[in-house]
Sequence to fold (195 residues):
Amino acid sequence: MKISENRGWIVVAVLVLAMALTRFNHFGTSVSLPDASLAVFFLGGLYLANFSGARWIFASLLLEAALVDYYAITAYGTSDWCVTPAYGFLALAYGAMWFAGNWFAPRHTLSGKNLLAIFVVAAAACTLAFVISNVSFYLFSGRYAEMSAVEYASRVVQYWGSYVAVALMYVACAVATQMVYLLMKGKAHNGSQVA
Fold:
């Protein structure tokens, strides 16, 4: 799917805004949406695969994530529990999301079979990102020296479902928005031919 420069910059702006507005709370609350970061990186890879400067946008989104985390910790008193030597491995987790979106981009259509495929690919990428972030946290955070890997895994696996579900919810919203946009564009185009 080739994207025009103008539409590409609109996608970039939406992704930046989505991360800025949601990254403060991983699971969400009654007044805040859950963290869209995983979906942001997947959708960035998907929609910006052929966009000039996509690598710089990926790097900029990584920087934005770190800056939002810093701001949340210093200005809002958000816990810094996850900021350990393992924090840098989030770049690998987000890279997996971006790569999966980028890999799927040439296959992305809005047909029924393909819609299922996008969610399978996104769920697999989220699972890989979950494993990367949790294994690195176990190994390098310095917080679990006394806990066995099996015990740690049994404690964190309970978060996998919500981790994947939240990202898939955002991906579904993006795909639905794309479908509505294309439907409206088609109606506008057909309407202009009739007139």
